[in-house]
Amino acid sequence: EAGVAQSPRYKIIEKRQSVAFWCNPISGHATLYWYQQILGQGPKLLIQFQNNGVVDDSQLPKDRFSAERLKGVDSTLKIQPAKLEDSAVYLCASSGGQGGNEQFFGPGTRLTVL
Amino acid sequence: RKEVEQDPGPFNVPEGATVAFNCTYSNSASQSFFWYRQDCRKEPKLLMSVYSSGNEDGRFTAQLNRASQYISLLIRDSKLSDSATYLCVVRTNAGKSTFGDGTTLTVKP
Predict the structure, then answer these.
(1) Is the pLDDT of residue A1 over 70?
(2) pLDDT at A47
(3) Which residues contact B68 (CB under 8 A, 6 or more apart)?
(4) Of A114, B1, B20, B92, whose Cβ has the fewest other Cβ atoms within 10 Å?
């Protein structure tokens, strides 16, 4: 079974630029999560989708971050404009199907904002 | 105060040692509990779920104390390959998961 796919793996941008990340969850998983993991900290939930609906986006900085999952499968997360403090690893995870509540994570996108 | 707090670590132990990690949570509505393992520069992976009665998986034992809102992970006979960061995860009935900041374990020969 293919795992969660994310791209790009690495991205370096300057502050005030925009950036987008893509995630393709495990087939059949209805729930998709985007996390931000700053070095030395645990993953922080940014947004959670159930199919194509938003379940929780309470910690998403909506003035600069947006996410969509239009067809209930893959998802994109965008930052516009980026700030220095956005430097982190952005992890996508999915759950559902026979995996139940277990979250399966993708390899992440490591973002550096200069 | 953070919703999920873990021992700050790092823990440096010799091979064969027994080591225990603690985690406390503040949301009394929390229903499910997990330990995830994260290797350096890798994604987190589920190590084990934590059940009310306590559960064991080989050298790993997880305990839950709902009254004290406390979770623990015990690793017996530590191996070099156990070196990683261990993340405590708490999930509400609504499906929201909160991760602790993790405890780093280094097992030395």
Answers:
(1) no
(2) 97
(3) B24
(4) B1
B5 touches chain A (CB under 8 A): no
Q: In chain A, which residue's Cα lies nearest the Cα of B9?
A: A40
Long-range contacts: B33-36, Cβ < 8 Å, 24+? B33/B62, B33/B64, B33/B71, B33/B88, B33/B89, B33/B90, B33/B91, B34/A102, B34/B88, B34/B89, B34/B91, B35/B60, B35/B62, B35/B71, B35/B73, B35/B86, B35/B87, B35/B88, B35/B89, B36/B86, B36/B87, B36/B89, B36/B99
Cβ of B101 and A40 within 8 Å?
Answer: yes
Q: Residue B1 — very low, low, confident or very high, per pLDDT cuts 50/70/90?
A: confident
CA distance A41 to chain B (A): 4
Q: pLDDT tens digit string along B41-89?
A: 999 999 999 988 889 999 999 999 999 999 999 999 999 999 999 999 9
Half-sphere exposure of B104 (CA within 13 A, CB side): 12
* Phi, psi values for residue B73, rounded to 5°: -135, 125
Is the CB of B87 less than 8 angstroms away from the CB of A44? no
Q: Which residues of A touch B32 (CB under 8 A)?
A: 101
Confidence of residue B94 (pLDDT cuts 50, 70, 90): confident
Q: Does B86 touch chain A (CB under 8 A)?
A: no
Is A9 touching B (CB cutoff 8 A)?
A: no
